[in-house]
Amino acid sequence: MTTAEHAATAARNVQPPPARASLGAGVVVTDDSGRVLLGLHRSGVWELPGGMVEPGESIEAAAVRELAEETTLAADAADVEVLGLILDSVTSAQLTRMTAATAVRGFRGVPSVAEPDKIERWEWTDPDDLPEALFLPSAQVLRMWRPGLAIPGGPFHRYALGRLPD
Locate the Nudix hydrolase domain: which residues (predicted)? Predict the structure, then answer.
């Protein structure tokens, strides 16, 4: 390989493609009774904590950061399990939305509203008694977490992740 070819290859490897996708983390956190934490968005829809994965950030780190930013709960990235990926073919015609379904196995603190412009309140909810007005990506994360939940499937693509040996 010539020097020019090597330089072209190196430059190609670090140039991002045009943005057409969005990666987020949906966070399932449960209390000692097995209830799921849901927030009532100002629009009247219930949702899980979660949000965008920042450049250079792992999915686990994003889940912990978003959980703290939205609920004030603290967790460690080591306590986050990535359950699978959900490819959303519903909510945008211009952007592919990918959500990593995550579950937090341990946390510290008491949930409180940290973004009052977005969330009215956080509530622990029995997973078998979920509200009907669920944010679609959150509903799909819950369905990935517990496939037997009575949540419509919709036109989403789901990719369950298996654990690799350490």
Answer: 18-147
**Tens digits of residue pLDDT in 100-144:** 999 999 999 999 999 999 999 999 999 999 999 998 889 999 999
Q: Answer for the pair 35, 129: CB distance below 8 angstroms, yes or no.
A: no
Domain range list for the chain: 22-160
Q: Does the domain made of 22-160 have the CATH classification 3.90.79.10?
A: yes
Q: What share of the chain is helix, strand, coil (3-state, %, to 5)?
A: 25, 35, 45
Query: Hey, what amino acid is at 15?
Result: Q
Q: What are phi and psi of 101, to 5 degrees?
A: -80, 120
Q: Which residues contact 149 (CB under 8 A, 6 or more apart)?
A: 127, 128, 130, 142, 143
End-to-end CA distance of the chain: 37
